[in-house]
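Annotated sample (chain length 265).
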Amino acid sequence: MKKGIIATLVFMLMFALVGCGSSTEKTATTEKKITVVTDAAFAPFEYMNKGEIVGFDVDLLKAVMKEAGLAYELKNMGWDPLFAAIQGKTADMAVSGITINDDRKQTYDFSIPYFESTHMILVKKGSSIKSAKDLQGKVVGVQNGTTGQEAVEKILGKENPNIKKFENTVVAIMDLLNGGVEAVVTDNAVANEYVKNNPDAKIVAFEDPEHFESEFYGFMFPKGSELKQKVDEALKKVIKDGTYAEIYKKWFGTEPNVESLQQQQ
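Output written by the structure step:
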């Protein structure tokens, strides 16, 4: 009888240990952090403020990941390196005002669109440049590897030496202020943000719908990522329940065109 009791206790202990092992493994899997990379030099979408990455994209990412129930870590990596990190699968996801286009779709997967954008031209006040066609014969600054660069290449020619490529838009605008370029082409929200926050710089920004079409930003993933479906579902809910509109108004001061976004889903 005593031998039988001991055997029973040993069996119960083994069963309990097996149960503990399964629970630990499940918890570790659940708490795995998603690595998200960005280029924090694209205000108001993402930029550094007192050592922290802040911006519209950062707040939207937080809301979407909360809705999806995913833990994550956001890392500032720079524009070109973030593409390499996603392609090489050393990061799980990227957010950085990244335009969805057919060329990038060949290498990466994208979420449903979360922001509609177009390009604007930044020039010094008094400039003779009044439209995209006026960029011909001028030295124009762009951020390397962006759709802004592609838009200027369509006007000036792909190998035109007058297209000056920069690591980020901030450096391009600094070169405009110093007379290194005569114009900078970048996304409308970024251009408007710079003009609003730097009235003494005597820089103006304008659109040219004839030459610059609308485009949409999306979260970017490695090809075949299982994250895409979860993020898409969470993003749809955040847009539908009004969370997206609250974040949009916080950063841009106006109501978003939610209907336009939903038509792209």
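Annotation: The longest strand covers residues 119-124.
Annotation: Residues 119 and 187 are 4 Å apart (CA to CA).
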